[in-house]
Structures are given as structure tokens and as C-alpha cells.
Amino acid sequence: MREGTALAIVAMGSNIEKERNLADAIRLLRRAPHITVQKVSGIYESPSVGGPDDAPEFFNAAALICTELAPLDLRAALRAIESELGRVRTDDPDAPRTIDLDIAYYGDVELDMDGWVIPDPQAGTAAHVAIPIAEVAPDWVHPSDGRTTKEIAEQTDPGEVRLAMAIHLSTPYSPRAPEDFDDVGDVYAPRFESLVRDQLLEIGENPDREGLMRTPLRVAKAMDFLTSGYSTSLEEVVNNAVFDAEGAEEMVLVKDIEFYSMCEHHMLPFFGKAAVAYLPKGKIIGLSKIARIVDVYARRLQVQERLTNQVGDALTEILDPHGVAVVMEGRHLCMMMRGVQKQESAMVTSAMLGTFKEDPRTRSEFLDLVAR
Ligand code: ZN
Predict the structure, then answer these.
(1) 334 C-alpha vs ligand 1 centroid, how far in Å?
(2) Can you give the pLDDT at residue 104?
(3) What domains sit in the chain, N to C, each tagged with a CATH number?
(4) How many CB atoms lie within 10 A of CB 361?
């Protein structure tokens, strides 16, 4: 694992509008900076403990995450998600809540700070917490009691805890949309879906007709994939694919990298091909990673100029080479479809850094190779 990152397990619970809140919490967690969600458990249903008999049942789940945040900062990030979902923390531990996000485990950290304890004591004793945790990280060893989460889950009294439903999540980063892209789960992104439904009404459609019934959910999933660059860090994409290469001085060029992005002015696609080159200074990167880096910045709302610069800056940051050159050629549907400029022509943007900027011969060698 990279330095400065830790694995942690977040325990989640809700008993107010729980289907919506749990799904939205997972989406917000997935989009939070410095947090990569690696695995999410199914949703488990259990009776409210300690509250009045007619208290609504709880939904619980767990997420395995990788994070650059220290425990206190991670807790603050979880609290921010809670308040975005309308949670007001009170002194009553049994009060109904829209959402509850707690750090169950953080690496092998053991911590007790004014009653805030890691690992969460409930992770070792309560089935509704332990069972989802064991699903996402069965081999995780509890730092003080030595048992794995699987053993803990098997040894707690399951009571009435039962699997309620599974949330289908697209993976945090993938070069292509997940295979089960259209395999619709029960719950995905309720707030997003209702917005898409309203949008359908606004354009005069009937969201209840058969062809449109699952459209809000599909749009939510598609948009999550198409904007997954926001929640993908450069480090996780590069993932140790940078190699020392003493003496490697020749230009490395990758051409015809397909990219698909969306313009930030109309949220309509623009797409085309990129050519990326660098002059190494002792470090090289796996070739396929260059296309992945383009994806990270393309999968956001963009303007092509910024996208081009970001790819150049990213390679500079990762490799510290003598120079980087990026040329992108894109066709913009917001121009082509709306008849603003009925044209076949493509927009070309470039970023020339280091030697490519300073030395005309290097630059023209690159441009010759691209044009070939
Ligand atoms: Zn546009």
C-alpha cells in the first residue's frame, strides 16, 4: 500500500427513510476526497435496540475503504456526510437517525479519545455491526482481541439480524463501465433518480411509461460512471506502475488514445483522440496507465483545454520528466447537435511542457510523429 494511506471499515446505520439515506450515504462516501470505497456489504435489517418497541427497524451496512485521512479527519468527513443527509446528533444514543457513520476499524489503530473508541466496541459485540463488517473484510483481525471479523460475527448472537437487500455499486475506478451496468439493483441513488424523473416531466415526457420506468436509475448509474474521475485519485490509477529506467532518454509517445468527456457548459459529450508524449528523466510509466490517466480527467465535466493541461500536469507530477506534450482532438456534440456550428471540424488543443515548450526541434519531432 502507498505511504500515508490506510484501510478502514466504516459502519453505517439508518432508521429514517433508510433506503434512501443509506444509498445516498454510500454514494457520498464514494465521492468524498481522499476516500476510496473498495467494498460495500449488503444491507442488513434489524430491530431497533434499546428504543421504544414501535421504533422503526434499522438498516445496517459496512464499507471497506482506503483513505489518506487520519482518524480524526476521517471522522470529520463522515460527520460532514451525516449532516448533508440531515442528521442532527443528540445525546440520546437510541434516537432515530437519518444516518449514522462510524469508524469501526482503522488499520490496527487502537484509540480512546474522550469516549471515542477505535475499534468501535460494537464491532466486537453487536451482530448488526459485526455481520456487515465480516462481509466486506472477513480476514481483518481485531487489533486487541485477536479474532478475525468473521470469527466475531459467527460468535455474536445474530438475533433478528437478516440480509435485507443488496446495493449494486459501480466500482470506484474501472476503465470501462461495469459489466452489470444495466443490472438494476433495488436501491441506487434515490435523490438523483427523483431529479431525473422531474427532468423527464419538465420535457413533457411520462416517466411512468414502460420505456422510461428504469431510466432515472440508468441515468444515475451512467452519470456516476461518466463522472467517476472526481472520486478517482491519480495515485490509485498509477498504482506503482512507475519504474526506474536509468539511461532511458528517448521520447515515449502514445497515440490514438480514445477519450470521452462531457462539456461543462451543456453537459453534452465531447470525444476524440489524444496523443501523449514525454521525455523520461530516469522514470517511465506503464503505457496503459497513460490512457487511464486521460480517463481520470475526461470523466468529469470539462472544457477540452483544461483536460489537455491536466493530463500534461499529471504526467509531470508523476514522472518529473524533461518534458511532456499532449495533443487532443475532440468533436463536441453541443456544437454539432444544436446546429450552432454544423461542422465536421474537430477542436485541437495542446499542452507543451519542459523540453517540448523550450526546444522547437523536440516539439516538431513530436508533431511529426503525431501526424504520421
Ligand atoms: Zn458545450
Answers:
(1) 5
(2) 97
(3) 6-163 (3.30.70.560), 174-231 (1.10.286.10), 234-371 (3.30.1130.10)
(4) 8
Going from the Cα of 301 to the center of ligand 1, the distance in angstroms, rounded, reads 10
Ion ligand 1: residue ranges with CB closer than 5 A:
263, 265-266, 334
Calculate how far, in angstroms, residue 266's C-alpha sits from the geometric centre of ligand 1.
4
Is the separation of the CB atoms in 26 and 85 below 8 Å? Answer: no
- Region 278-306: what's the mean pLDDT? 94
Higher pLDDT, 62 or 52: 62
How much of the chain is helix, strand and coil, in % rounded to 5? 35, 25, 40
pTM of the model: 0.70
Give residue 273 CA to ligand 1 midpoint distance, Å: 18
Catalytic positions, written as ranges: 263-266, 304, 332, 334
Q: Rounded to the nearest whole angstrom, what is the distance from the C-alpha of residue 260 to the centroid of ligand 1?
A: 14
Tell me the pLDDT band of 287, cut-offs 50, 70 and 90.
confident
pLDDT digits (tens, 9 = 90+) for 301-320: 999 999 999 999 999 999 99
| Torsional sign, CA 79, 81, 86, 92 | negative
